[in-house]
Amino acid sequence: MRRVTFPPRLPFPLPLRAAILDLDGTLVDTLGDFTAALNAMLAELRLPPVGAGVVAGFIGKGTEHLLRETLVHVGAAPSLFEHAMEVYLRAYRGLNGQAAIVYPGVVEGIAALRAAGLRLACLTNKPGEFARGLLAAKGLAGDFGVVFGGDAFERKKPDPLPLRKTCEALGTEPAATLMIGDSRNDATAARAAGCPVVLVTYGYNHGEPVRGVDADGFVDSLAELPELLKRMRA
Ligand SMILES: O=C(O)COP(=O)(O)O
Ligand SMILES: [Mg+2]
């Protein structure tokens, strides 16, 4: 049996009323989608392709960041950015979800959170249109009363603003709202907003080991959440 790792006494007040889940790297492995859309764009601009290993390190800070880093990586002129963005968004729209896989344990984990009576939101730096389309394509849209993309607010994660706004939409206090993500970006935003935060160990985390990030707990699968919640409510 896989063990849940977390401090023996979690440093936040209970009970929890809601959870905010990140999308890419937490609910769905979208590396295949990102890589395919970027390579379609690069081919159209007659630039060299990128490998998935490189792309994984660019995910999690929104589309502008992903595109800028990719153009630098292939040695393209920064002036290509706007055109590249148009081509990339068109490509992504055309293949959203096709090479993406829901991580093992996600369906069980979400069911456990719902059974515990928590309100659920999905908060991602992905454009809202793509986030809603992906959740629908993967049969997860009905689980989230609230879905916000990276274009919903003035600033994206790691700024705390999107988490504060999501708590407002959920009608819960940040201290009673658990953030579940895969990266330093999620943890930094959660800490600054006053939300407890648990990170999954299988996501992208900007290409770095996730266990080095300051978080309240780590799980290898969302299916471990019931055990974690039990401890948190004890
Ligand atoms: O960077 C993105 O587009 C998505 O990132 P997130 O779902 O992990 O917030
Ligand atoms: Mg993520």
From TrEMBL:
<comment type="similarity">
    <text>Belongs to the HAD-like hydrolase superfamily. CbbY/CbbZ/Gph/YieH family.</text>
</comment>
<dbReference type="GO" id="GO:0006281">
    <property type="term" value="P:DNA repair"/>
</dbReference>
<dbReference type="InterPro" id="IPR037512">
    <property type="entry name" value="PGPase_prok"/>
</dbReference>
<comment type="subunit">
    <text>Homotrimer.</text>
</comment>
<feature type="binding site">
    <location>
        <position position="182"/>
    </location>
    <ligand>
        <name>Mg(2+)</name>
    </ligand>
</feature>
<keyword id="KW-0378">Hydrolase</keyword>
<dbReference type="GO" id="GO:0008967">
    <property type="term" value="F:phosphoglycolate phosphatase activity"/>
</dbReference>
<keyword id="KW-0479">Metal-binding</keyword>
<dbReference type="GO" id="GO:0046872">
    <property type="term" value="F:metal ion binding"/>
</dbReference>
<keyword id="KW-0119">Carbohydrate metabolism</keyword>
<feature type="binding site">
    <location>
        <position position="24"/>
    </location>
    <ligand>
        <name>Mg(2+)</name>
    </ligand>
</feature>
<dbReference type="GO" id="GO:0046295">
    <property type="term" value="P:glycolate biosynthetic process"/>
</dbReference>
<dbReference type="InterPro" id="IPR036412">
    <property type="entry name" value="HAD-like_sf"/>
</dbReference>
<comment type="pathway">
    <text>Organic acid metabolism; glycolate biosynthesis; glycolate from 2-phosphoglycolate: step 1/1.</text>
</comment>
<dbReference type="InterPro" id="IPR050155">
    <property type="entry name" value="HAD-like_hydrolase_sf"/>
</dbReference>
<dbReference type="GO" id="GO:0019253">
    <property type="term" value="P:reductive pentose-phosphate cycle"/>
</dbReference>
<protein>
    <recommendedName>
        <fullName>Phosphoglycolate phosphatase</fullName>
        <ecNumber>3.1.3.18</ecNumber>
    </recommendedName>
</protein>
<dbReference type="InterPro" id="IPR023198">
    <property type="entry name" value="PGP-like_dom2"/>
</dbReference>
<comment type="function">
    <text>Specifically catalyzes the dephosphorylation of 2-phosphoglycolate. Is involved in the dissimilation of the intracellular 2-phosphoglycolate formed during the DNA repair of 3'-phosphoglycolate ends, a major class of DNA lesions induced by oxidative stress.</text>
</comment>
<dbReference type="Pfam" id="PF00702">
    <property type="entry name" value="Hydrolase"/>
</dbReference>
<dbReference type="GO" id="GO:0005829">
    <property type="term" value="C:cytosol"/>
</dbReference>
<feature type="binding site">
    <location>
        <position position="22"/>
    </location>
    <ligand>
        <name>Mg(2+)</name>
    </ligand>
</feature>
<dbReference type="InterPro" id="IPR006439">
    <property type="entry name" value="HAD-SF_hydro_IA"/>
</dbReference>
<keyword id="KW-0460">Magnesium</keyword>
<feature type="active site" description="Nucleophile">
    <location>
        <position position="22"/>
    </location>
</feature>
<dbReference type="InterPro" id="IPR023214">
    <property type="entry name" value="HAD_sf"/>
</dbReference>
<keyword id="KW-0113">Calvin cycle</keyword>
